[in-house]
Specification:
Strand content: 15-25%
Number of strands: 10
CATH architecture of the largest domain: 3-Layer(aba) Sandwich
């Protein structure tokens, strides 16, 4: 008899204390937990070990991290085959996603394939990195009538103008994709406060709102920016 669902579990920003209780429970009782691994290693696997997941149940899969998604989709195709095999054997299968699985997460591709194969999927929500980032420094993201807009790998002068008018708060993610333009606009944003974060929720976490410091950073993959009017 098979389990009724495959679980897509959101890990949150990287602190084991910030995962949903339901998600932690699923991961601890799953027969196998699949997590992504890059050339730099697997943050997810380290997270799972800290959470108390038995190492023998953790299975890493290689996930290329670049803008050309063909290789990533091929990795998910291979993962799909293994997930289906384990599920068909009656095992409780979980696949993890950093941050929230419904927020710019490539696990959506796997979820779609599973649903097309008539395999039910349960997605467990997590805390997106920008929510955790703001909380870590006591920063209110939005107030009163402000809008919050998330920009994935893009920043421009019009966006900055809307922020400085006081009507919008901007979250910029995937900073490495827009680093030159971001650093150019950094010098012109006189009426805005730039809150820069790296590796939120990990021991490598870094924060500054000093624009000179931001300009000197080489933006890693896990970096984000929150821009508010002053």
């Amino acid at each position: 008899m098979t389990h009724r669902s495959v679980y897509i579990v959101s890990l949150g920003p990287g602190d084991p204390g910030l995962i949903a209780l339901h998600g932690a429970d699923v991961l601890r009782r799953a027969d196998i937990v699949f997590c992504p691994e890059t050339k730099a290693g697997s943050r997810s696997a380290d997270f799972l070990k800290k959470l108390g997941v038995n190492e023998s149940r953790i299975r890493c899969y290689q996930l290329p991290m670049n803008k050309e998604r063909a290789q990533a989709y091929a990795a998910y195709d291979r993962l799909f085959e293994e997930v289906v095999s384990r599920y068909s054997q009656g095992e409780c299968v979980a696949v993890v996603a950093e941050g929230d699985a419904g927020f710019y997460s490539s696990t959506r591709y796997l979820s779609g394939k599973l649903k097309n194969a008539a395999i039910p999927v349960v997605r467990i929500a997590g805390i997106p990195a920008f929510i955790a980032a703001a909380a870590s420094v006591g920063l209110p993201l939005t107030e009163q009538e402000e809008r919050l807009t998330v920009y994935p790998g893009r920043i421009d002068a019009e966006m900055l103008r809307r922020v400085e008018s006081g009507g919008e708060v901007a979250v910029v993610m995937k900073l490495s994709q827009c680093e030159p333009e971001l650093k150019r606009l950094l010098r012109s944003g006189e009426n805005s406060m730039w809150h820069y974060f790296e590796n939120v929720g990990s021991h490598e976490e870094f924060y500054t709102c000093d624009k000179e410091q931001i300009a000197k950073r080489a933006f890693p993959y896990f970096s984000l920016l929150i821009i508010k009017s002053v």
